[in-house]
Design a protein that fits this description.
About 35% of the residues are buried. This protein folds into two domains: about 5-50, no CATH class; about 65-300, 2-enoyl-CoA Hydratase, Chain A, domain 1. The protein has helices at about 5-10, 45-50, 65-75, 100-110, 145-160, 180-200, 215, 240-245, 255-260, 270-285, 295-300; strands at about 35, 40-45, 80, 115-125, 125-135, 165-170, 205-210, 225-230, 270. By secondary structure, the protein is an alpha/beta fold. Helix 6 (about 180-200) links the parallel strand 6 and strand 7 (about 205-210). The protein is about 35% helix and about 15% strand.
Length: about 300
């Protein structure tokens, strides 16, 4: 429905001012207005797109899709995806509460992606990098065999080409439908990061909301520099599990990026609009000795 049609249909209804609406007193049409889950105010979709999906009222950072995240970080037209056709199988014949293949099909339909992790070559302010992004729409960006393999290949390609790695995480953790095969990806990705570090290359990790479980416990927090977006929830077990284990309610800011910065787990909290510039600055300082390359070289060698 276009905004014109929607306004015409609302002519004889009570008008609701932007910024004061609540779910109980307005019907929000899909694709026109979005309710901020943090402050419950209504924001025009066009404004959200222009503001990188950050609420103009409270500054809440809403989730970005993998394509949106790549667009926000990489130089225009520079991203060249690698291994785009890799998809998960059903090694365990998992069927509860529904068949795993059905979950995969639904995730592909909802996200338009073959898997929860996308990676490739890109430039960020002219700096050639291997850029990888997780998409929470795909089964909560859980890490199964394919996600672990693609993360591993991203680092292996970076080692081969002597390139920095920039990864953006958003995950619920390991993918339970793959059982032990999923848990093995923690060791696999941690091992390749070790080899990458021994090669003397630069790894920058950007933690977004939420980053939990096996992803946090492996490659996401093994970077040279760990950044996070404001308000991102980051941890291993969720707050409900921890509260049940300790029989004590955690603090209000528990597992937020701001709290983790205060306790030394991450290096900085950076607004989304500033991330590309901050990453470029870090690359300029930390990867200054890398040979100059261009996106055209990457296309010629890998496309």
């Amino acid at each position: 429905m276009s905004i014109t049609d929607w306004l015409r249909a609302r002519e004889e209804k009570r008008y609701t001012q932007l910024g004061t609406a609540t779910p109980s007193d307005t019907d929000v049409p899909d694709g026109v207005w979005v309710k901020c889950e943090a402050c419950n105010r209504i924001v025009y979709e066009g404004e959200l797109v222009e503001n990188l999906r950050v609420c103009k009222h409270c500054g809440h950072h809403m989730r970005l899709t993998a394509p949106e995240r790549i667009e926000s970080l990489a130089d225009e037209g520079s991203f060249v995806e690698l291994d785009p056709a890799m998809t998960s199988g059903d090694p365990l014949g998992f069927s509860e509460p529904k068949p795993y293949p059905a979950s995969l099909d639904k995730a592909r339909e909802n996200s338009g992606l073959p898997e929860a992790f996308v990676y490739g070559i890109a430039t960020i302010d002219g700096h050639m990098v291997v850029l990888g992004v997780m998409d929470f729409r795909f089964i909560g960006a859980s890490m199964g065999s394919v996600v672990g393999e693609k993360v591993t290949r991203a680092f292996e390609h970076a080692i081969k080409e002597a390139l920095p790695v920039v990864l953006v995480t958003a995950s619920g953790g390991a993918r339970m439908q793959e059982g032990m095969l999923s848990l093995m990806q923690m060791a696999k990705t941690a091992a390749v990061v070790r080899r990458f570090d021994e090669a003397g290359l630069v790894y920058i990790s950007i933690l977004t909301n939420p980053t939990y479980g096996g992803v946090t416990a492996s490659f996401a927090t093994l970077a040279d520099v760990i950044l996070a977006e404001p308000g991102a929830r980051i941890g291993f077990a969720g707050p409900v599990v921890i509260e049940q284990a300790l029989r004590k309610k955690p603090p209000k800011d528990f597992q937020t990026s701001e709290s983790l910065l205060q306790h030394g787990m991450i290096d900085d909290v950076v607004m989304r609009r500033d991330l590309s510039e901050r990453v470029a600055l870090l690359l300029e300082y930390l990867a200054a000795g890398s040979p100059p390359q261009s996106a055209s070289i990457a296309r010629g060698g890998d496309a």
